[in-house]
Design brief:
The chain is mostly helical. It is 70% helix and 0% strand. It has helices at residues 3-18, 22-37, 43-46, 52-84, 91-120, 135-139, 148-170, 176-202, 220-223.
Length: 227
């Protein structure tokens, strides 16, 4: 077996291993399902305490927050599909594609659950756009589409920002079950970033797979990889 084949197999195994993070997403999906299994946002338990106006405001707030999360899912799905067409048929390109495929599947599942949750609240899910502007990442040197390695770095930066965004957005939700579900999806996004860093490690790049104890704006620079 040559070196290239060994690298591909190593990273593919890593992608499959980290894809077990799907268990985390299952928890998120279950949380969202539970939240809407009872008539709209735990109305049975809260009806005695909240008037209709307060309930309406809570729903409107949660629809907005969930749509913010859905926007990131649409962006990630578009970015992964767009980048897939730019990857080469080399060992590195195939390794990046293996991890990207697992991450993409998760994002599509997130999209579907969030869309259903928004509709259950009486809202309209934000639609996917024809394309998304990633120039700010490229200008900041946090990835590009000119090579397999830089595509992976761009994906990493997007996953890091998605993780941070979910952490911030989940705290704005008014429904406890949704807060838990949103946080669970954020955890899944963190796993995506970790999977990409693990792929770099498998390819011989000397980096820490988990470079910081926290995922927030203050530690963001430790997680992303510069071009």
């Amino acid at each position: 077996m040559d070196t290239n084949e060994s690298l591909i197999q190593a990273v593919t195994r890593q992608a499959h291993k980290v894809s077990r993070r799907g268990i985390l997403f299952t928890g998120a999906a279950a949380g969202l399902a539970t939240a809407f299994a009872i008539p709209a946002v735990s109305q049975v338990a809260e009806a005695a305490m909240l008037d209709k106006s307060t309930m309406a405001q809570a729903k409107k707030n949660d629809i907005t927050v969930l749509n913010n999360g859905l926007y990131y899912e649409h962006q990630a799905i578009w970015a992964y599909k767009f980048a897939a067409g730019k990857l080469t048929d080399t060992a590195v390109g195939k390794a990046v594609l293996a991890v990207a495929g697992a991450n993409l599947t998760d994002h599509q599942a997130h999209r579907d659950v969030l869309s259903k949750a928004i509709r259950s609240l009486g809202g309209t899910p934000v639609k996917t756009e024809a394309s998304y502007d990633l120039s700010s990442y490229i200008k900041a040197g946090e990835g590009n589409i000119d090579s397999d390695v830089n595509i992976a770095k761009l994906a990493l930066a997007l996953e890091v920002d998605a993780t941070i965004a979910y952490t911030l957005e989940a705290a704005k939700l008014k429904t406890p079950a949704l807060i838990t579900a949103g946080a669970s999806i954020g955890t899944n996004e963190a796993a995506h970033a970790t999977a990409i860093r693990a792929a770099f490690k498998s390819l011989g790049v000397d980096i820490a797979i988990v470079p910081a104890s926290f995922f927030n704006a203050n530690t963001r620079s430790a997680w992303v990889l510069k071009v």
